[in-house]
Amino acid sequence: MGSDTRTRSSGASLAVGALAAALATRRVWEWRQVRRNRVTIPLPAHTPAGTSAAARVVCVVPMFQERDLAEDTVRFWRRLVQDKIVDAVVLVTTAKESDEAGPSTHALLRKALADGGSDAEGVVLLHCQEVHRYRAAQLDLAVDWARERFAADAGREGLWIGVYNADSRPEPQTFEELRVRIAAEPGVRLFQQLVDYVIPDREGSGHIAAGNSVLQTWWTLAHYVPRNTHGYVGDTLWSRTSPYSTFGHGEFIRSDFLAFIGGFPRYAYADGLLLGWVARLAGEPIGLLRSRDIAEVPRTARDLVLQQTAWLRGLLNFGVTVEWCRSQGLLRLSDAEVRLLRVRHLAIPVAWGLSTAAVTAGITAEFHRVIRGRSSAAGLARVAALASYPVLPGLVATTQQQRVLGTGRRVAGVLASWPVEGLAFWPALHGHLRRGQQAPAKTPR
């Protein structure tokens, strides 16, 4: 009996040790990617003369229950239009939002635009009367406006639609980089820019927001960039099934591609993910822009769980996208490639959810062994190795805001945010298996 107990205990320790070693290896690899990708995504060496400014760029910002951000959103985009950085900006509200709780987002935007007078020219406010579960209806309305406005001099191949959230504040050089890439790579019809996630400068932001901004930016640099780069330039089975997509903000789509797929996807939640998946399954490359979209993270633990749950539910919609592409005749990958891509996409939410549970269980098991006086030195080493997994991203500052925060606040933040993010996997999985509500009426940031 005692021998069996010792054997089981030894086996558990070996399993925890193997988990710690695997996670440490993963973090080392991520750290190398983060260091490389903070600054290194070069622009094309040569751009055909006179072609970088030919494209028309219209940015679309769907707005729903964005009262706190309405005025600042108008101020930001009006400045870009005045400086002729973009050709037009379309703010789109929805009939889903009422004014029962005070002035609606639409009313606040209309007032902000009126207060700007002629300075607001080029910033257009539309109101989507179609009540649809997802925001694709708002996006399609804005695309129709842009085509009517610019079709004469741009045509569908010269018109580009950028999608941003109300809290997005893209770097101004984004649009020059986009035009350079359009000229250098005329066959590319989608681009996704990188995102720096920041703490909202509003009441209620604390350690959770600080930690999430660190972890989200870390994931983008450590995982999204290499997946996109590998899938974009390679032509092997592994590169064609590299699991990456678009984000739903900081994405640019040529108008003819939207016409090709019938508009923004509205058959499931998370049009940003769906759009990129459709492109991947249809054999369309997704270019990567190094200029950043500066985007806010959720302020509270509750909002973070709601957001991550919604994102995870979106990630679980890949199979639905495959069937939709097949029904529309858009599928260009082989059956084997689709199966491999499905597995690699599924691994993302599963690893996301299970890593938190595995690390927590490993720390608990080893700590219990240490308390009982079994292998204290080795046990403490394993506990330290596992506990370092969520901490390490906090030791590296990837944005200016993170540098200002300092190491102490970054580490405290990731320790607060990391377990909260992991909790979101379980309600997302439960909702997906029950085929219930896919997302909250509004996904928090």
Task: Describe it.
The chain has 445 residues and is α/β, with parallel strands linked by helices. Helix content is 58%, strand content 11%. The protein has 16 helices and 8 strands. The protein has helices at residues 2-37, 70-82, 105-116, 136-158, 173-184, 207-233, 237-240, 255-261, 271-281, 301-315, 318-327, 335-371, 376-391, 400-405, 407-423, 425-434, and strands at residues 56-62, 88-94, 123-128, 159-163, 169-170, 190-198, 251-254, 287-296. Helix 2 (70-82) packs across helix 3 and helix 10 (301-315) crosses helix 16 (425-434). The longest helix has 37 residues, at 335-371. The protein is globular and about 75 Å long. The N and C termini lie far apart (53 Å). The model has no long low-confidence stretch (mean pLDDT 87).
In summary, what is this structure?
The protein has 445 residues and is an alpha/beta fold. It is 58% helix and 11% strand. The longest helix is centred in the C-terminal third of the chain and has 37 residues, at 335-371.
Write the element-wise H/E pattern from the N-terminal end onward.
Answer: HEHEHEHEEHEHHEHHEHHHHHHH
Q: What's the total count of β strands?
A: 8
Can you give the mean pLDDT? 87
- The share of residues in extended strands comes to 5-15%
Q: If you compute it from the alpha carbons, what radius of gyration comes out, rounded to the nearest whole angstrom?
A: 23 Å
Molecular shape: globular
State the helicity in percent bands.
Answer: 55-70%
The major beta sheet can be summarized as: 8 strands, mixed
Number of helices: 16
How far is it from the N-terminal to the C-terminal residue, by CA? 53 Å
Strand arrangement, major sheet: 3-2-1-4-7-6-8-5
Structural class: alpha/beta
Regions with little confidence, pLDDT below 50 for 5+ residues: none
